[in-house]
Amino acid sequence: MANTLPHVEDAASTTYLPPKGEYETFADEAHYEEKVREWGLSVKKEYWYKERTHQRIVTIKGYEVYGKTKEHNTIVLEFEDGNLTCIHPAYLKEMQSPSFAKAAISDTEVVIDKKKENTSKGNVEKPASPESKTAVKKEQPMKQGKKEKAPKIELPTDKVHFTATVKQFALTWNHFNEDNDEVVVLENVVIQQEEPIQIGLAWCSHSKTLKKLELEPGNALEFDAKIVKKKLAKGKDVDEEFIIEDPVHYKINNPSKLKKS
Predict the structure, then answer these.
(1) Are residues 87 and 165 in the same domain?
(2) What is the mean pLDDT of each run of 10 residues along the chain (261 residues)?
(3) Domain's final residue, options 56, 78, 95
(4) Contact at 8 Å (CB) between 102 and 51?
(5) For the chain, how many structural domains are there in total?
(6) pLDDT score for 164
(7) What is the Cα–Cα distance from 257 to 246, expressed in whole angstroms?
(8) Which helix (H) or strand (E) holds 83?
(9) What is the CATH number of the domain that holds 18?
């Protein structure tokens, strides 16, 4: 179905949700392409931002990170008039469809408020009695088969220097574009600083920059990058050689100054 919404550039017609403060920007073109694909979008310079009565051209200016593991993103968009707004990656992807129809933001806010109200009312619990607390404590030793947790590591927020070894190539499921993405699994990952931090296993996207190095398992690497806690999801319907054998809890973002040996 063809687009029927008019293209307008009227700031008064748009409701903005600007970033709350500092946000991440792209280091280079390769970083931009990597993040856009991670969000399930086609790589291009301009996208459509659609309201109920109109649509506008926007560009991706950067992104915010949130969540305990800093693995979730909100995209920061820039309109042609310079205004900024934030949007969830999946929502921006929906807006690119010719048949997209957007509900009024005011209606959405009412629904969200009602959900919060119902949740707050439904989750009111009476204080547990001393007897019930004792019962819970007695039951705890009976629990078995707890999942192994990754050791707690204080991760730096800025770019740092790494050494690592290529362990294997693997495929991970990307729920945004509903397809597998190729990644590189690294082992013996160490943050090289005055007091080195042993990370162990980590993963990163097999970007164009990395593909130029023609990596093979066993290659030693040095690079600068950021690191976040983000578990590597397994791919769907993949060959045995691309299956991830061990749990990988950390992701390397935007590696640069790469050296292979």
Answers:
(1) no
(2) 52 80 88 90 91 86 83 90 91 85 45 50 52 48 53 83 93 80 92 91 89 90 92 82 85 90 83
(3) 95
(4) yes
(5) 2
(6) 94
(7) 28
(8) none
(9) 2.30.30
Strands (E), the chain: 47-50, 55-66, 72-79, 84-87, 160-174, 179-191, 197-205, 220-229, 250-260
Q: Tokens 């856009």 correspond to what residue? A: 36
Sequence length of the chain is 261
Model pTM score? 0.52
- C-alpha span between 32 and 161 (Å, rounded): 21
Owner of token pair 């990597």: 34
Tell the residue number behind the tokens 């590696």, with chain if given: 255
d(CA 150, CA 231): 10
Is there a single domain that holds both residue 164 and residue 256?
yes
Tell me which residue has tokens 């009111």. 124
Q: Tell me the residue range of the domain where 229 lies.
A: 160-260
Read off the tokens for 147.
Answer: 């999942």
Residue for token pair 């160490």: 190
